[in-house]
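ok so for the tutorial part 2 we go from a plain amino acid sequence to predicted structure tokens. step 1 is just haveing the sequence, like this:
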Amino acid sequence: MAQARAVHDPGKILLDVALAVALGGDCLADVGMLRAEPAVFGPVASDPTVSRLVDTLAASGEKALPAIRAARAEARQRAWQLADGKAPDAGRAVTVDLDGVLVIAHSDKEDAAPTWKRTYGHHPLMGFVDHGPGGTGEPVAALLRPGNAGSNTAADHITATQLALAQLPKKYRRGRQTLIRTDSAGATHDFVAWLAQRGRWLSYSVGMVITDTIHQHVLKVPASAWSPAVEADGEIRDGAWVAELTGDVLDGWPKSMRLIVRKERPHPGAQLRLTDADGMRLSCFATNTSGRPIAELELRHRLLARAEDRSRAARATGLRNLPLHHTAQNRILVEIAQIALDLLAWMPMLALTGTARCWEPRRLRLRLFTTAGQLVTTGRRRILRLAWHWPWTSHITTALEQLALLPNPG
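step 2 — the prediction. this is what the tokens look like for a chain of 410 residues:
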């Protein structure tokens, strides 16, 4: 006797939940918004079926997560191929930013703990591919951790980097085509040494804490060694300079590591730190990139600030809170949230143009996803009718035309 097959494919269920999260949902039951429109989304599983699937995947231990991540990596490679020059690897290089995201827990959950911001919840470490100034970003790693997980945890940074590299197309897992960029949370000897051991594979740009040793070396840098800092448009930044530190300040670090420091006049009313020098605000980072001006490398590192935008988008897309109690269940939800963020990154990359490519999830929902429309079937054709007076109707119609031109990924 043939075994009965499931009515709903597990992959379709996960995708439906991810779509609901992308549209603004924050719990499993929000998949009901898709269920209400079968003509658009097809058959959608019931709430009990969705819950049972999440429980089943959570109970599988580490078997489900690699399968979900492998599917995401394959979809990412196809999306980048379809992007035709608009993908984040258009410059033949990929930048991955590592950043911690605080997820608040409003009730007692497994592994929830007090955070460094005196809140309560979880502290996942995430990795985002930076799409540059013309786009947003997409998640490539999410390591769920307790709220009291330390910032300078080398093992977590290594694991997050490995997860991120596994999400990239194979040609970016080797060779100096991938930059790992992080703030001073990654400034540990073990993490930098791990990156340096893959020197032919990776470039890195890691923020460093201004220690007393670095501070003393900055004071000894002659005026002639400072170069003006630059902005993204190539203009010289007035009141900011950069220099490279050498000598015993690099003792104990990998031989290929370079230490670059920036000093700038503080903004009016800004309070200086004890490690600042001569009334100048100091910051520092390490890199193994050679052959480029230090001002250019400093600007490249400063663009890490875009990771804060990605973290904000993540909190607005499924990571505002983790609704389930057990950590194994919430790990599945974190993967679902990443799928939702992938969709919100790939859709603008493939279909939108201009400033619309940089819209964050909340703006996409307000301007595009909540547009009133009517789906009409006539003459064996489906026609989508949109309100002509909606300010962003042209963005929707142009996006649909762009998507229609794409080849079938197969």
